[in-house]
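If you are new to this repository, start here. Below is one unmodified record pulled from the training split, so you can see the exact layout before writing a loader.
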Amino acid sequence: MAALSSSSMCLRDSTCQLPRSVSTNYYKRRSAKWRSPQAAVIPNLHLPMRSFEVKNRTSPEDIKSLRLIKAIKTPYLPDGRFDLEAYDVLVNMQIVNGAEGVIVGGTTGEGQLMSWDEHIMLIGHTVNCFGGSIKVIGNTGSNSTREAIHATEQGFAVGMHAALHINPYYGKTSVEGLISHFDTVLPMGPAIIYNVPSRTGQDIPPRVIHTVAQSPNLAGVKECVGNDRVEQYTEKGIVVWSGNDDQCHDARWNHGATGVISVTSNLVPGLMQKLMFEGKDPALNSKLLPLIDWLFKEPNPIALNTALVQLGVVRPVFRLPYVPLPLPKRVEFVNLVKSIGRENFVGEKDVQVLDDDDFILVGRY
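And here is the target side for that same chain:
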């Protein structure tokens, strides 16, 4: 009761009240009009999450100069989760051997088997660990424009340097729809457009590329149609990377391509670096063609996954629907390694054939 009485007296006593200055400032804050940060009010319907700060942004010109970009494999643990320790070793081997950029979660990296949460996490992890040494290009394209917008926003938010955008597949669309799709995602940041009709079921015609090339964010095109198309673009000043390892030597040195986005570099990064950096070398190109041919007998990345397991640099884990190559093809790879030289391949263990029972196939992950 005494405590209550004391409290009541304090409330009536002006000396127990808060200082006037505190009270005045409080009401000033309450009555002041809130003003939005400048970036939030710049009108752009396509960039609801993007900051206009430029201190950590990569210029498209920085991407255009890359000669060897590696489409990196994603390794797995026995339960199907990412094996980030093995992944870091793979990326580091590429950096040591001269790769200048890496595609995260592309076809080779099995982005099609990832949730978007996994996808963005892997992009962020790559930026955090290697972003100071190599350009990180996140595959954030989709057949849904809405998903492409959302994934690209998140990819840039976690620090990727550029996006890889494919044309809408399966559902496909018209030429005007392709232009609108790319015009919607290109304002977000530097991007490479990926044309691979064998997977999407639809070629991106030159008319589309010439139209969207007006965007300052188009770094260039990964082109898989062939070297005639490569030359058609390079003559117009559009940067092109060959998407075909078996054509990349001629694309680079005879048709004006800047370089290659390579699968084979996963296995022989030093030789692919030499092929792209050191001038015409038809002898080296011929030496690599049997390996490249072996890699693409089955849809990528089946052979690549099998090869990396045989080299002992990743665990023998496959996310379904991918399964390892059959035994005769695994024996053929051992002979290819011996022919090219084990010292040219990634890893340090002896190449092995492996038995069928050594592989783990994961359907739920």
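Two things worth knowing about this chain: The chain has 16 helices and ten strands. Residues 36 and 235 are 46 Å apart (CA to CA).
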